Hints:
This protein has 23 helices and 16 strands. By secondary structure, the protein is of the alpha/beta class. The protein has 4 domains: 4-49 and 414-441, no CATH class; 56-183 and 397-403; 221-391; 500-668, P-loop containing nucleotide triphosphate hydrolases (Rossmann fold), CATH 3.40.50. The strands form 4 sheets. The protein has an 8-stranded mixed beta sheet, sandwiched between helices. β15 (695-696) and β16 form a beta hairpin. The chain is elongated. The relative contact order is 0.10.
Amino acid sequence: xxxxxxxxxxxxxxxxxxxxxxxxxxxxxxxxxxxxxxxxxxxxxxxxxxxxxxxxxxxxxxxxxxxxxxxxxxxxxxxxxxxxxxxxxxxxxxxxxxxxxxxxxxxxxxxxxxxxxxxxxxxxxxxxxxxxxxxxxxxxxxxxxxxxxxxxxxxxxxxxxxxxxxxxxxxxxxxxxxxxxxxxxxxxxxxxxxxxxxxxxxxxxxxxxxxxxxxxxxxxxxxxxxxxxxxxxxxxxxxxxxxxxxxxxxxxxxxxxxxxxxxxxxxxxxxxxxxxxxxxxxxxxxxxxxxxxxxxxxxxxxxxxxxxxxxxxxxxxxxxxxxxxxxxxxxxxxxxxxxxxxxxxxxxxxxxxxxxxxxxxxxxxxxxxxxxxxxxxxxxxxxxxxxxxxxxxxxxxxxxxxxxxxxxxxxxxxxxxxxxxxxxxxxxxxxxxxxxxxxxxxxxxxxxxxxxxxxxxxxxxxxxxxxxxxxxxxxxxxxxxxxxxxxxxxxxxxxxxxxxxxxxxxxxxxxxxxxxxxxxxxxxxxxxxxxxxxxxxxxxxxxxxxxxxxxxxxxxxxxxxxxxxxxxxxxxxxxxxxxxxxxxxxxxxxxxxxxxxxxxxxxxxxxxxxxxxxxxxxxxxxxxxxxxxxxxxxxxxxxxxxxxxxxxxxxxxxxxxxxxxxxxxxxxxxxxxxxxxxxxxxxxxxxxxxxxxxxxxxxxxxxxxxxxxxxxxxxxxxxxxxxxx
Length: 725
């Protein structure tokens, strides 16, 4: 089931797309008309619009920078401002710039009559702001100002003037701000000079009054003489503490070593040459003792001598180890004493320094105030110097016109090709949209699916447009195949072979039921069946006109008992096809079809003919159609393609079933095969088929070529038939 789902969905999507394509083909005239109207209208309007010209001036806009690197802006150049260009866009369109352009070019006087300004500079500004379009060239600092005008020379003049005014405004603003800033800085410098003089006087007075002993170091501050002593003692204390920590750690670790292993560990630590030499002599003596003991025996004099040597060396090593250990302990005690003495001196110096600091507190405070005043004074002096230098250098590269505006060669608007292309696109979209909207509003029968879904009845045949009577078109007419399909479906769809009385009905007038029943009867007659065609549309009979016969006598005369059946039935050009016209309808016989005589006539006709066909009036307008549907064995509903709403077809089917009639199926009539390709395989294949091909006859056996000169039928009667009048 899962495997079938994709295929089903694909089929539905294809069908859905084909439905759209069918709508486009059906409504192609509407689509083409709307498309043509929009394109023609767009073209005419484009030709009618007065051309507008565009001139462009391009400027390289930077932040304020000088011709050489400026002292004050060296750091600012490294900062990226994402809003700078957008800010310049707004400045270019501001009144500060555009009012000067209007005044310099006298645009109020020039545009007064053209734009009805009334000598108003504000209205001129509103007009001008709509004519300019500043843009940023992507990934650059270049701004281009596009100016539009009906006069190409005026557009170039305005563009260049905007660039000129904008550049002049930037220069004037920079100079004005620089002058104001320098003036304020100089005022502040005078204030700081007075503060520095006052602070220096205060410092000198405190030094003189308290007789302080201080020195100045690198012009960065002051310190007392005790400060130098404290620094020296702190440095000395650090060195002594380092040596003490090292010796204490080493002595502690050596104490943890066992006496028999201490001799081996002590040599590398203290790097004592005597101990190293004694350990080496002791090791060699042991090796020699071991070798001689093995060769000479334990009591040999040489072995005893070597044993005495080893004891002596061992004693010497032990004595040396004790001496080194004692020396390390003595050094540690000396370092401890030195550390204690240095710490005491440092604490004494700090105490003296704290005492001096208490006395010098007021001096230090005054000195700090002096330093702050001097730093502020120097900062202001530096700033004034920088600003004066920057102002003297100048900034000619902040705004640089790279391309001046020139009169345009061709108009910018309207763009004929673009407008026509847009018109084509809009026209096509509008046309297709209108076609689908009309299709949405159209509730008529359009497809076989509509019929089967709405009526739950099979479609027996699809009849193309412009089909006439097959007797007039000839037996080899390409339209005959559609009716052969209908005949075949009728034969195979009916359940009872005795059901040979068929009526054709429709919901409304003009759906082609008379043509359908005439051609269906003709096809049955061509197949060798003896057929009686009855025109039972008593109010608007039409079959006699198509057959070229008279309607003076007919069904009404027979039902009223005025004439026998043989007297009212007429022959046609096709031997097996007999015709019973409606006859004249007297006003007293309006309900004659719903009479016992009509039922007797149907029984008699069925017994004499292989098939009997009744042409009925529209079922929704006249009651005769429902009478015929109930009296006949089978009923065929004819629905004209795209004519009446589906509700009419549904109502027609319900009325047939309501009176007890049996609806065999539906004939979809008047299909436009040229515009709706979905019906091609229903009605197009027969145009190339062989009309002499074998087809199932009434008894289900294949038939050969029809000989219209020999009547043939299962219930052939020898009843004399009245010839045509």
